[in-house]
Amino acid sequence: MKIILWAIVNVLIINQLYAQTEAEQDSLRRLENYIADTVYIDEVEDKAGKIDKVLHAEPLYIDLIRDLGARKGEAEWNIAYGMTDVTSFTRYDALIEYEFAPINRLGLEIEIPIALHKNNPSDNTYDVPSDRVNGLKLAMQYSFFVSEKLKTSLAMGYIHEFEFADLDKFGKSKLYKGNIYNPFFVAAKRWGNNFHTLIYTGGRIIKEFDYQYAQFEYAINTNLHYMISGTRNFVGIEFNKNFTQLGFNSVIRPQMRVGISDNFLIGIVTGIPTNYKQERLSTFIRLIYEPKHRKKH
After folding, report:
1. Residue 11: how many CB atoms within 10 A of its CB?
2. pTM for the complete prediction?
3. N or C: which end of the chain has fewer CB within 10 A?
4. Which of 182, 17, 159 is nearest to 99 (CA)?
5. What is the reported pLDDT for 98?
6. How far apart are the first and last CA of the chain?
7. Cα(129)–Cα(16) distance, rounded to whole angstroms?
8. Judging by DSSP bridges, how do beta strands 215-227 and 152-164 pair with one another?
9. What pLDDT is stored for residue 4 in this prediction?
10. HSE of 42 in the Cβ direction (CA atoms, 13 Å)?
């Protein structure tokens, strides 16, 4: 009986020591993550001689013109591809864009978006839109408030899109068919080191030369992201809400961003509409290349 009791006591002692070791290991891991995350945030924000900048997670579908609080010389190339099931057809979207900061806090961007369409054999109720180079987008964004203490940034911007005619009408009608005017406002805040929130909102006025009246839309995009400690990787969700003259529609977009190398990242997005009468599921992939990014830790 004594031998059994001695064995039980030893097992309990060993388990207690093991539990303490596991707890210590967990504490060390948390400390390492905190230190790595702090070092990365400091790399972005606390550069000697540089203006204030707050690290924010940037949404992947409706992205920003440039980082909030951009510093002179920053630049980025984006190539993206998406596919959307729109009931009677499938739309394939692609874009290429270049964004850069010529001076502190000012971001500029040029983008060329393309839309291709394929008929859905199971539904011939509606005509399939023509393929098109949507237009040429020129954009600017200025961060007028950046506070490292409050971990908050505010910005205003403007996007101007020159609309082009459908591809099947090239040579038969005017190449330049109208304009889209899109002022917007951005507010972002980081909570602690990992959680990021952002609101992107603005109106779009669509005026084509062949129509007397303009169309008006208003968008409110809200975002929540969790950035993995010590990395540029994140997971999050983007809520795209759009008000038009025809009604309201919204799409929920779970997403993730992963760093492949020091200056190359990939973003993956899934679109889940709240109203399946207008569109169904969608996917979107964004490739991000930052030519001047250097990792220092």
Report:
1. 10
2. 0.81
3. N
4. 159
5. 97
6. 58
7. 68
8. unpaired
9. 53
10. 9
